[in-house]
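Today's session is about reading a structure prediction critically. Students often jump straight to the picture, but the first step is always the sequence itself: look for stretches that repeat, for charged clusters, for runs of hydrophobic residues. Only then move on to the predicted structure, which in these notes is written as discrete structure tokens rather than atom positions. Here is the chain we will use throughout the hour.
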Amino acid sequence: MRIALFTETYLPYINGVVTHVKILKDGLERLGHTVLVVTADPATHSHYIKDNVLYCPATRLKKLYNYGLAVPLSKTRLRMVEQFKPDIIHIHNEFGIGLSGLLIARRLHVPMVYTLHTMYDEYIYYVAPHPFYGLAKQISHKYMKFIAERAAALTGPSKKCEQYFEQVGIYKKVHVIPNAVELTAFMPENIDEEKKLAFRKDYGIAPNQMLACFVGRLGREKSVDVLLDYWAKTITPADQIHLLVIGDGPCRVELEQQAKDLGISQMVTFTGAVLHDKLPPYLASCDVYVTASLSDTNSISMLEGMATGLPVLQRLDHLNEDQVREGENGFVFNSPEELGKKLRYIKNLSPEELATLKKKVTKSVKESGAETLAKNTLTVYESVIQK
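Below is the predicted structure for this chain, in token form.
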């Protein structure tokens, strides 16, 4: 099968969608399929293909991490995709490149699959001032409905996607296909012990301190502010539990100030952005992954932590409650007290008990590799082609 994957951003940029598309591409190619990734590139002025990626000229968006926005209409892009002769067009975003995928699919009479990765209501504040939030939300919903109505199939990594489509007026079946993780890179046995020790030394984390981490964009939608509030209410220096916040974003400065105002700066470290290929030792040096976010569908950062053996402490989210199985790969909390109780429970496990728990956690994501993602997605492709 010949498959064209349309994504607004791709390598060397790193975010959840990029990681998903990269892993899907790898899995499809391992299964013998031919893949073309179509993406925006603000560094080029002409369309070109390299390593099965079609790079399209785009305008750089400085407010959105220097990502690029490509115009949706391009005869050159249409011609190059037509020469690829796709059997399926699969769009992973909804803007310039995503809309381009929709238009090209209609022009070439090729079925289009649409994956929703992002709960956009949580991100409207990036583009609309607060007084216009309601209007921007209405426009966003109408646009999402426009795209979803024209898709031959809808997919998403969580039940949240189905709920979101219903909110915008779409009642089609949504195929829930969980995200995947690059297992080889994050498995504990593949991570250098010396790098782990160097990491703790560099950040001044004592060997006897339990280290909890969160990884992600530091925006409002990730609720790191809630995590800090909970931490201040339930964790004290005597607990010897440290919080590591890995990532950067528009809220980093105010989050660092919040930690100071709450009097927990000595218990919290902000690392800033970390290159994805440098991330495994950071995660492997920690003891638990913690998140208060309610905007994620199926967090890839969380899965990467689980691949290194980190049990997850996840704030209660009813639509994602099946992602963390109590006592098997993590625990759910819904208050500062519950967060503190679960953290202390893990800290007080014996080395043997902790090793057993970590093995369970790693085992729970063993089937979350590239080929599993590809096989699940191929089932959707085959169904729409048959129709």
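Discussion point for the tutorial: The mean pLDDT is 92.
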